[in-house]
Design a protein that fits this description.
The protein is of the alpha+beta class and about 300 residues long. It is built from 8 helices and 8 strands, in the order αβββββββααααβααα.
Length: about 300
Amino acid sequence: MVFLGIDIVAIVFMIVVIILVMTGVKVVPQGYTFTVERFGRFTRLLSPGLHVVLPFIDRIGFRQNIMEQVLDIPHQTVISADNAQVTTDAVCFYQVQDAAKASYEITNLRISMQNLLMTNIRAVLGSMELDDMLSNRDKINILLLSKVDEATAPWGIKVTRIEIRDIAPPTDLIESMGRQMKAERDKRASILEAEGKREAAIQIAEGEKQSQILKAEGELEAACRHAEARERAASAEAKATQVVSQAIQAGDTNAIHYFIAQKYTEALQAIGSANNTKVVMLPLESTNLLGSLQGIKELLSTTKTS
């Protein structure tokens, strides 16, 4: 009986030791921080690893996840500054930096952050017009991050990012925006087309202007050349007349015959080259042409002999 009593005591002692070890030794996994409470009061934090606490005196209060976490913000309806009703949702990334504050400064941390975010989203988006909402998401995210991070700092929380996932106007408003966008695009297309036609007209006018300038310069050059040719012809005619006059004064009648025959021949050539001329009637005085030609022959013979 004595040995039996000793065995029972030993068994009880071993059970007590096991219980003490189980309640006094704590293993904290990586990415977590535990709070230790002694008689209900916070005393210290347990970082990842193996720790020993006083059994039945110390106990684990909260197990805080210190890794970055994501919090989904559900859909909610927001009225913009221009009375447009939109539906929006968001996502928030945060990290617990002070496990004691996150455990004892706020109750239901995730629900509190969710409500805080929804309130700030309504405040930020409600102060903006619909066009600003749709075109300035980066600005909205920055404003929300600044406000929420400041509000959650006393809770030991660091908000790293807030992203607006969707801003959905009503169906009728989307259709109206589509019509407005189409009208704006048609307007831009008409403006571009008008500018293209104007540029083409300017280019055509510029080309015609250059063409007229070149044509005028050509006509001026041609007129100068014609005037110069007429001047030379007149000078040659005057020279010829002077030579004939000198020959006549010298008593040479062949020169006057040459002069008359030249003019007579030019006149007959002009008559014969007319487009409407079918029959050429020579005057009776055409025999004078033969006499003039005879004078030219004699003149040439005389010149050759000389």
